[in-house]
Specification:
By secondary structure, the chain is α/β, with parallel strands linked by helices. Helix content is 53%, strand content 13%. It is built from 14 helices and 9 strands. Strands 3-2-1-4-5-6 form a 6-stranded parallel beta sheet, sandwiched between helices. Helix 6 links the parallel strand 5 and strand 6. Helix 9 packs across helix 11 and helix 9 crosses helix 13. The protein is globular, with a radius of gyration of 20 Å.
Length: 299
């Protein structure tokens, strides 16, 4: 199938909760997308949406102008990029990798350096906005890398998100993403504590959250997660397991630069305790369950 001359051909590696709807938004925008992921049903979904399913990473990236990766963590980013079957050995020189995974800043810096030796350009472009933001193409995208590569990627990123900002050199996108995850976790924890306090006080929770949402306590977190709290619906938009990984990234990165995160450290431990209780597969709004347990509520 020939591409429209104006649009780069895209390879997409990693079609999970975020990756699948994002790849579909590129298809809707007129891009040709060849995808690879480990789950056959996700490859079928891509094909049904008009994309092409590849049998391997090598096959997916071979002819791509732009390679977008969206996998869970640093080990997976390394696994898909390095080695004989990986992206760097099989992509063509001049290709642009946009890594949208949330990983350690150092992993992004190392990837950019190793890719440059093959003539492959890289930007780190992690996102915020969760599954809803991915579906609605309103993600916030924080980017690290060279200005020219950012400029080349911008039309593609415009089909995926709304707020797209170059934050600095390689790794900077990941640093800003780590800060994002710190703010989100602390915010969810504060909302969860308020919910338990309100319920134990016998207040109408729906009414309380409505009025709180309209004042200084209002936030995107409260707006997006209100129904999760009200309905105890913890179907994952963003899993506790992944937020646990991200809290590890931000606490480690903060230690490296000498920044104290006293509240963040406490919330990181609360996220870790949820995982230990078997709640790692739930949405991060399930921090409510940890507060309930501490408050003597049967969950």
């Amino acid at each position: 199938m020939s591409n429209p001359a104006a649009l780069p051909s895209i390879a997409w590696i990693g079609l999970g909760i975020m990756g699948s709807p994002m790849a579909e938004n590129l298809l809707k925008a007129g891009y040709s997308v060849t995808g690879f992921t480990l789950e056959q049903d996700k490859l079928d979904r891509l094909a049904a949406a008009g994309g092409t399913a590849a049998g391997s990473i090598a096959e997916a990236v071979r002819n791509a102008d732009v390679i977008i990766t969206m996998v869970p963590a640093s080990p997976q980013v390394e696994a898909i990029n390095y080695g004989p079957e990986g992206i760097l050995e099989n992509a063509r020189s001049g290709a642009l990798i946009i890594d949208m995974s949330s990983i350690t800043p150092q992993t992004s810096i190392d990837l950019a350096k190793n890719a440059a030796e093959k003539g492959i350009r890289v930007i780190d472009a992690p996102v915020s906005g969760g599954e809803a933001g991915a579906i609605e193409a309103v993600l916030s995208i924080m980017v690290g890398g060279e200005q020219a590569d950012f400029d080349a990627a911008l039309p593609v990123l415009d089909a995926l998100g709304k707020t797209i900002v170059l934050c600095g050199p390689h790794g900077s996108g990941q640093t800003v993403k780590a800060a994002n995850q710190l703010i989100v976790a602390v915010n969810i924890q504060a909302c969860a504590e308020a919910v338990v306090f309100l319920e134990k006080s016998g207040v109408n929770l729906t009414a309380a959250l409505d009025v709180l949402g309209g004042g200084l306590a209002g936030s995107t977190v409260l707006t997006r997660k209100k129904d999760n709290f009200l309905n105890r619906d913890f179907k994952p938009g963003f899993r506790i397991d992944l937020h646990h990984k991200d809290m590890g990234i931000v606490t480690d990165a903060a230690r490296n630069v000498g920044a104290a995160l006293p509240v963040g450290a406490v919330v990181a431990q609360l996220v870790a305790s949820l995982r230990a209780q078997g709640d790692g597969g739930l949405d991060h709004s399930a921090l409510l369950r940890a507060v309930e347990r501490l408050s003597g509520v049967q969950v």
